[in-house]
Amino acid sequence: MTHVPISVTVDGALYEAEVEPRSLLVHFLREDIGRVGTVVGCDTSNCGTCTVLLNGRSVKSCSVLAVQANGANVLTIQGLAEGDGNWHPVQQAFKECHGLQCGYCTPGMVMSAVDLLQENPSPSEEEIREGLEGCLCRCTGYHNIVKSVQFAAEMMGGK
Amino acid sequence: MIPVAFDYTKPSTVDEAVQALIAGGEDAKVISGGQSLMPVLRLRMAAPSVLVDVGGIAEMNGVSDDGDHLLIGSNTTHHDVMNNALVKQHAGLLAMTAATVADPQIRHRGTLGGSLAHADPAGDLPTAALALECVMVAQGPKGRREIAAKDFFVDYFTSALESDEVLVAIKVPKMGDGWGYHYEKFNRTAQAWATVGVAAAVKRQNGTITEARVALTNMGPSPIRASSVESALAGASASADAIAAASTSAADGTRPTSDLHATAEFREHLARVLTKRAVAQAAGV
Containing H/E element for A51? Predict the structure, then answer.
């Protein structure tokens, strides 16, 4: 199988690689360049755990081919904190409000919340629940996840 | 799971895409956002020899005003369809329906053209396209042709597109004054496909329904117009009683399946109930 050259900016760094066309973006992130903060939950497009921002918008990285990200800018959970190590307000809010239990869905929840808040800086509770519709938490910790997003919105000045 | 190996090509024009499809033969497959295709590939329910990625074809992007209709490029994402000012103004039913598709991440990638070409009987957008009497613009080796929505959805996951044709754009007739619309979907969990869905567009004049379009999701191998409901509504008063009476025939002529989610009988029941709700909303009752 012919490999295809791609160049993708991930969390601010440019990566050049040759990938099989069938490689999923999440596999490229985890296995080719070692960005393992993005995890695979269901591998069936359902759970949203592998959510990253692709050119600024949330996508499920198990449902995008790595070749389709050629030339794109990808932001993962690992690139969310600023260079000085300060957490993003959404990350801080998840810590403050105990927005995680086992933590497995957290990368996807946080990235989805970041996307939600950039589109709607002061969402209602219902808008948060609908905005995170694409992410599943099998601990069913949704209540505190919603609180976390509300708190993040306040911190980010959207209230 | 990891898909079966395939080749990949990314043309920059529709002509190149058609050439790639001809070269790829029967097993070539078009991909755009890939939100319907990727799950199928991962489950190895499809094993294309080559994927022709039309996502980089500029002329298949965006929404333009073309007189009595809008021209929506096939690559336009659900997110862009639901937020586009022209679509909201002239084809609100399509914007409303796009907003119910899956979840935000899928809507950022999934495209209108892809959803229509996929022809999933449980897909929402084919039903809206049928109710709006959209026209599909396809390009193949012999040039372009236009296919009415009623002829486009042929069978389960089967559209009228030939294997060497690309769905380039969708012509969406503008809804004029006096029309109301609604898409009513019943599903069991967030982001699930429609167990049944109903798209309704209703034209009202002085308390009377002058014209109604009602289309059903997942009531057969492809979306279907509830024509007996439409006939019963034409000329009826825009009242809850008249709408309820007309909606009793919503399941007439349908062929719903029984599956894990619902029996055929339950789907028929849902078609009647959801039609009543959708038409009432569309008529402002």
Answer: strand A51-54
- Which chain B residue's Cα is nearest to A45? B39
Residue in A4, A45, A131 closest to B38 by CB: A45
Q: Cα angle vertex B193, ends B189, B194, to 5°?
A: 95
- Strand-pairing partners, residue B50, are B7, B28
CATH architecture type of domain B58-173: 2-Layer Sandwich (3.30)
Minimal Cβ distance to A21: which of B8, B102, B105: B8
Q: Which residues of B touch A133 (CB under 8 A)?
A: 103-104, 190-191
What is the pLDDT confidence band of residue A158, given thresholds at 50, 70 and 90? low
- CATH class for the region spanning A4-77: alpha beta
Q: What is the CATH number of domain B7-56?
A: 3.30.43.10
Q: Which fold has domain A89-155?
A: DNA polymerase; domain 1 (1.10.150)
Query: How is chain B split into domains, by residue range?
Result: 7-56, 58-173, 179-283
> What's the topology of domain B179-283?
Enolase-like; domain 1 (3.30.390)
Please tell me the predicted confidence (pLDDT) of residue B192.
87
Give the C-alpha separation, B272 to B280, whole Å.
12
Give the residue among B214, B190, B189 at the shortest CA–CA distance from B93. B214
Instruction: State the amino acid at position B91 in one-letter form.
Output: A
Q: For residue B55, give how far its alpha carbon lies from the nearest alpha carbon of chain A (Å).
A: 8
Closest alpha carbon within chain A to B50: A21
Which chain A residue has the Cα nearest residue B37?
A63
pLDDT in tens, A13-42: 999 999 999 999 999 999 999 999 999 999
Q: How far is A134 from chain B (nearest CA, A)?
A: 5
Listed as ranges, residues in chain B with pLDDT below 70 are none
Out of A22, A43, A62, name the one closest to residue B6 (CB): A22
B174 near A CB under 8 A: no
Q: Which residues, including other chains, have CB under 8 Å from residue B127's CB and lie 6 or more apart? A: B97, B183, B197, B198, B199, B215, B216, B217, B223
DSSP code, position A159: -
Residues 6+ apart with CB under 8 A from A125: A146, A150
